[in-house]
Request: fold
Amino acid sequence: MTAPDFSTDLTNAERAPRKLHVVTHGCQMNVYDSARMADLLRPLGYTTVDTPEGADMVIMNTCHIRERAEEKVFSALGRLRVMKEEQGGNMMIAVTGCVAQAEGEVLAKRAPFVDLVVGPQSYHRLPELIAAAHRKQGVVIDTEFPAEQKFDFLPDVAAPQGVVSYLSIQEGCDKFCSFCVVPYTRGAEASRPAASVLAEARRMVALGAREIALLGQNVNAYHGEGPDGATWGLARLLAEMAEIAGLERLRYTTSHPNDMNDELIAAHRDNAKLLPFLHLPVQSGSDKILRAMNRKHTADDFRRIVDKLRDARPDIAFTSDFIAGHPGETDADFADTMKLVRETGFALAYSFKYSPRPGTPAAALPQIAEEVKDARLYELQAELRRQQDAFNAATVGLTTPVLFTGRGRYEGQIAGRSLWLQPVVVAHGEALNGQVRTVKITGTNTNSITGVLLPREQIAA
Ligand code: SAH
Ligand code: SF4
Ligand code: F3S
Reply:
């Protein structure tokens, strides 16, 4: 499919050099989308700048997952409004992403100084929409779920994302967990064809990527069309990705326990580039709450999957997501969550206080008192912190390949990531960006570990 030539819609003035500032909230899928929007606008004369001051266009790519995420959008918009006024109105403001999708009309009313509201599945139409916004008074809104897939209309990846690059291979979600807005903001689940993913991955590697994280809200449910006409699962795609010369490491996020099939588990044993690291959200350890959440798995199902993965790859580390205080959660249910956490042992985990989201089934149920949610979250986070510290401490003394990504916070330090994605800081004068080097782990800090580079001779010995 060829991309339509939007450029004919623009006047020469509209194609003049312009400064673009992109702000990204939310998940890594938004990080990917932000990079693609910048790629899309570059041929139209937009160069990206680091601050909104003086920008001709600001794109705010938003997240709707919890109330706090949404509040952030409105307060950031308040600051942009002032800036826009100071620039005599010469700043086009576009709100994209999940708040745009969920709150399109409300946004246009609450923030009429915004020029464009564009949902996460229609941003390939940005050039057209910008042209329309230049001509029209009032807010231009596009929150359709177009029949075409945006990926077919985006230009090739043009700017390097970095040593670690994110690549969306699947969009949307059909799972409808009781608490979650994603199926409403991102639409139905759809996988990209494997050939288009592989071509994009090769391009990212040519631009300097050494690690690629494949993205989707249920990335392990990937079922894209293969070049051979067959349907490829994620394991098959990862096997093909591993053949890309110059690509050192692979990972994928986020996975749903129900889509963790045996083929994918085997990939953790067989695919040498796949990191021994998996983000596998479980949300709760109580079967009653898992049922209320519409997760369609039990706590024991999760335990079995973890065991199988540990059999396949003994050094695998797990991270997860938890929600404290979903409607109906009793002290006993929460105790089941704590039990699951203690038994499993996580390298790291994210935990959230349940936040009722408009339009989701759980929001209509009787809610747990705020102070109960707070107390549970506190207890959960204390245990998860303890586990993170224990995990990091257990890696001291090990040698691990580290992929270096940049400089450390202090002069003479470089930083990278271990096999288990721990941030690693090493004292070293020379930048090693993009290189994988063996490091002996020597100590731990709050959120990172420290190490020393092993001389190459010593590794060979
Ligand atoms: N697709 C992924 C994650 C989606 S959102 C999955 O299925 O696991 C990331 C995390 O945000 C979720 O795993 C969940 O823990 C949290 N989350 C989603 N909706 C929430 C809500 N209404 N309140 C609190 N946390 C929520
Ligand atoms: Fe949300 Fe559930 Fe879909 Fe994850 S699987 S995106 S939590 S509805
Ligand atoms: Fe947020 Fe949308 Fe991602 S709601 S978590 S930005 S899919």
Residues 6-142 form a domain with the Rossmann fold fold (CATH 3.40.50.12160).
